[in-house]
Amino acid sequence: MQANGLDERTNLLVEEYSTSGRLDNITQVMSIHTQYLESFLRSQFYMLRMDGPLPLPYRHYIAIMAAARHQCSYLINMHVDEFLKTGGIAEWLNGLEYIPQRLKNLNEINKLLAHRPWLITKEHIQKLVKTGENNWSLPELVHAVVLLAHYHALASFVFGSGINPERDPDTPNGVRLIAVNNFCVCDLANDNNIENASLTSSNFGVSIADSLSELEALMERMKRLQEDKEDEEASQEEMATRFEKEKKESLLVITFDDEIVSTDVSRYIEDPGFGYKDFARRGEDHLPTFRAQDYTWENHGFSLVNRLYSDIGHLLDEKFRMVYNLTYNTMATHEDVDTTTLRRALFNYVHCMYGIRYDDYDYGEVNQLLERSLKVYIKTVTCYPERTTKRMYDSYWRQFKHSEKVHVNLLLMEARMQAELLYALRAITRHLT
Is 383 a known active-site residue? Predict the structure, then answer.
């Protein structure tokens, strides 16, 4: 990083520490991308601490409920502390049967948003806003939905980056930097070159020469896509066919069976066996593709969310734009590289797995740019984050730096959050009309 970039990063970390009294591992890893971190902290601070429709303890309890869907004990523990600090009733932490009926009523939408957001309908919204004394106002519901989507997506980031708790009572000074699957946040945050960690790993039997040629091949494909774009335009029919093909192929990438949930997490979960099921499963062709043009974040979602929960739309929009456009024009050891096609492929592939299609995007690019090991990683981090392993992280883009892989995780997180919000906000719009 440039010296001034480091200064900016230090200032931001100092500011975050003085605001919240702690510097968690999420913040440290994200601080590799200072511009993004600033945007992230601003929106998260607003959701959790500024004026808004929901009382503070509710906000943290909703964060716990969201994180529990992915068994993310890191986030659960963080918000258990915050819940108590903001005056939450300790008894609620015994499990869902101890919480008010209003919060219990969120279980269904939490479950659907986390695993199959395309199933959310206006009837789910109506049920929440018309349940007599336990009803939710629309502003409260929008605040809750934003929190749920934020924490589902943040769980993806935590598992994708191998982030573990900061403190461990078993060590003399209470600090532990070993993270999930032998990740170490100090490595990620300091961007130690991955070749030290994984190129020498005997697991893969991959030589440096092989991984270098992978990098060159990817650069070549990017260049060719740019040139082809100037030469020819695919027809709308062809574009639609390529989307369907990519959607169906994503089925074969990786699928996990239901899993056992540990008891300390299960108390916050209703229907633990409910998980991600592929949007495009055979025999379910009746599920209509979400055509992004019919309900976009820019033209529809943004204004609705901003109207019902003022200013959050601006903050989320800034965060989405920031991560989508973030680039240093580098790829591994190469400089002056236009990475637009790669960033777009990553973002759109996540939306494709959620059944969201962009009419003007050629899904053939996804197949050209994302090799299978990267697709396995993306699908796991996005749909089954708790199953992510270091092996998956190491197996793609072996020549790339940690900072570039963290950037991938930021893109996946924001693409996932936006996909969840699009489905929820579309259902709210339908309820209103």
Answer: no
